[in-house]
Amino acid sequence: MAGGDFIKNKRIIIFGFIVAVVLSLFIYHDYYSYRKSHFQIYLYQTNDAPNLNYTTESKHFKINTTIEVGKKLQISNNNSTITRNLKDMQDSNKYTSLRYSIKIENISDKLLKNVKIIAFLDKSLEPYIFSGLLYFGTPIQQRIDLNYPNYKMKDNIIYVGASSWLPNLSQIDADERHKILDSIKKPIKLIIKWDGGEEDLLLQNFDIKMY
After folding, report:
1. Angle 160-95-171 from CA coordinates, rounded to 5°
2. So where does this one cross the membrane (predicted)?
3. 90-110: buried (b, 16+ CB within 10 Å) or exposed (e) per residue?
4. pLDDT tens for each residue of 41-88
């Protein structure tokens, strides 16, 4: 009987150990997923756009891109650290502002659910852009639905954009200035995903405004 109880207890211990291991794996998976989802802001977090079959023609969207170079930023009057830093940079006369705004309009006849968007600037801008980041878009945690065209609600449109700084274009030599402006004019890669669909677009026709 003692030997049988020992074997029985041993089996219980082994079974309990297996259950503990399985539970720990589930807990680790949930924790890892939590960390990944909370630290990843966009669909991709890299300056390298994925190698996809980009096209200049969209079947679902009308897209307008505006690029503003050298426009004076409207900075709030609060005394936060970010505001002070922005004011210092703008007042220092060492930098030129760079701002992108992409208007994305659903022109299809369907409601597009759970839309995620990311844009990639050309890699040639990397040495010049102050933030060092060449991508921007919608946060992956944000739920966005784009309705089909509805002139009453206007809920078929979304804007994505970003602002950063370049070296002061009036204080660098002409060759370097031309390199920066040529980089700004290069195509933007835009990825739009939604439930059941995706478009990978190459944006080329910009409205570039110089100030």
Report:
1. 135
2. 12-29
3. eeeeebbbbbbebebbbeeee
4. 888 999 999 999 999 999 999 999 999 999 987 777 777 776 777 777
Residues 84 and 91: beta-carbon distance below 8 Å? no
Q: Using one digit for the tens of pLDDT, what is the confidence trace for 180-209? A: 999 999 999 999 999 999 999 999 989 999
Distance CA 144, CA 200 (A): 18
Q: Where are the beta strands (DSSP E) in 48-94?
A: 61-69
**Distance between CA atoms of residues 120 and 115, nearest Å:** 17
> Which residue type occupies 136?
F
Asked whether the whole model's pTM tops 0.85, one would answer no
Amino acid at 71: K
Q: What totals of helices (H) and strands (E) does the chain contain, helices first?
A: 3, 8
Q: State how far the alpha carbon of 170 is from the alpha carbons of 86, 94, 191, 201, in Å.
A: 19, 9, 34, 33
Q: How confident is the model at residue 39 (pLDDT cuts 50, 70, 90)?
A: low
Question: How many other CB atoms sit within 10 Å of the CB of residue 19?
Answer: 10
Phi, psi at residue 192, to the nearest 5°? -125, 120
Question: Strand (E) positions, the chain?
Answer: 61-69, 95-106, 116-120, 135-137, 157-167, 188-194, 197-203, 206-210
Provide the CA 108 distance to its chain's centre, in angstroms: 24
